[in-house]
Design brief:
The protein has about 400 residues and is α/β, with parallel strands linked by helices. α3 runs parallel beside α9 and α9 crosses α11. Bound molecules: pyridoxal-5'-phosphate.
Length: about 400
């Protein structure tokens, strides 16, 4: 740090310099985040100092958090849950706002572990969870932190988790299953209803990672079952900072039962509240305000239009790519496309270097991964395809 403070002008020139190196989401097909809605930005500014880690001091921001949890509960059919309202829960759902999918996934598994431990179940070995091979790398962090074995079930030909593989991996030490509703690489939805049957049969928890799909699937023309309507689902991760158009960091974790939240509690002797069930201590009230504002502003109709826009872009890119001879790995389920192109790593590198397009690559098999987000436009897609055609032709005959 410098000894004497810089002037405002110097600071802002310094900041603008740094900002000029950011991409501003222009020509970005690799991110599951997007520009926040302007209402979310305004709301965020209004609550910039609010700390949800000390709820007694920020009762207003806390109310907004509770309202978001209630609205998300409605979106995810928490009305089908039969638990008493009040106490830790908003109407029939319990949960809190996290920093994103990673924290939600960590806390969901921590809740499973704590509940099983409280039930004094004896394990013959290390407790384990069974997740799809397609699960987000946040589960590597779960494995690293939690003293839990993470078992990866294989996928079927459509990149959904293979149920036979899941059942084979369950043993006497299994505490829970994970299904993905909108996996990161392919946008595919695991068979949550079948996972639910297996979870109920074996008395296991079932966490659904809908970090991306949570603000997409409910607004598709034919939504697949993935939420609390499915009886075995015990928790859901959903991220307002992805397709929810809120500011970063905005995630949410919802539970079917208050016992989950209870199991996460630690006492907080010097705060205005006696206990805390969140992973982080200090939490952004600004994110709660942003999410609350954008959800109320857009409503179901606004999010439906948002998803419709992204799905139209998805259909357009697949249709036009097919004309160039590039097939998708699967018919897209949501606004994520994996395109089979020759030498995808080199294509990706050249698209970025020559034309400034940011795309990513799936792990297995390697394909060009494109996420069609609200910041993309039909014009972007036309330009992108022209450049893709040039780059692939060049690679074929260098
Ligand atoms: N889960 C899924 C399915 C994701 O796609 C992602 C991120 O893309 C995450 C979890 C992690 O979310 P975050 O980066 O907000 O922690």
């Amino acid at each position: 740090m410098n000894e004497q403070g810089l002037s405002e002008r110097e600071i802002f020139s310094y900041l603008e310099n740094a900002k000029s190196e950011d991409t501003d989401y222009y020509r970005v097909f690799s991110s599951m985040c997007t520009r926040p809605h302007k209402i979310a930005i305004e709301a965020n500014r209004l609550f910039i100092e609010a700390n949800l880690g000390d709820l007694g001091l920020f009762a207003g921001a806390h109310k907004l958090e509770q309202e978001v949890v209630r609205m998300l509960g409605n979106l995810l059919h928490a009305s089908s849950i039969d638990v008493p309202s009040g106490g830790l829960c908003q109407s029939s759902v319990c949960g809190y706002l996290t920093t994103g999918g990673t924290e939600s996934n960590i806390q969901a598994v921590r809740g499973m572990k704590n509940l099983v431990t409280a039930g004094k179940k004896e394990f013959k070995g290390t407790p384990n969870i069974v997740i799809p091979a397609s699960a987000h790398f946040s589960f590597d962090k779960v494995a690293d932190m939690m003293g839990i074995e993470v078992r990866r079930a294989s996928l079927d030909s459509e990149f959904r988790v293979d149920m036979a593989s899941v059942e084979k991996l369950i043993n006497e030490n299994t505490i829970g299953l994970v299904g993905i509703a909108g996996n990161t690489e392919f946008g595919q939805i695991d068979p949550i209803d079948k996972l639910s049957e297996v979870a109920l049969e074996n008395e296991l928890f079932l966490h659904v990672d809908a970090a991306f799909g949570g603000f997409v699937i409910p607004f598709l023309e034919k939504p697949q079952p993935f939420d609390f309507k499915v009886p075995g689902v015990t928790s859901i991760a959903i991220d307002p900072h992805k397709m929810g158009l809120s500011t970063i960091p905005s995630g949410a974790l919802l539970f079917r039962s208050p016992s989950f939240l209870d199991s996460l509690k630690v006492s907080t002797p010097y705060l205005t509240t006696k206990s805390q069930f969140t992973l982080t201590g200090t939490r952004s009230g600004a994110s709660a305000a942003a999410t609350c504002a954008v959800m109320k502003y857009l409503g179901y109709e606004g999010y439906r239009k948002n998803v419709q826009h992204c799905m139209e872009l998805t259909s357009k890119i697949v249709e036009e790519a097919r004309k160039l001879g590039f097939e998708p790995l699967i018919e897209p389920v949501m606004n994520v496309v994996a395109l089979k192109v020759p030498n995808p790593d080199l294509v990706r590198e050249r698209l970025l270097k020559k034309f400034g397009w940011n795309v990513s690559i799936t792990r297995t098999p390697r394909a060009l991964r494109l996420v069609l987000m609200p910041h993309n436009s039909p014009e972007d897609i036309e330009l992108f395809l022209k450049d893709l055609k040039k780059v692939t032709a060049e690679i074929k005959s260098p």
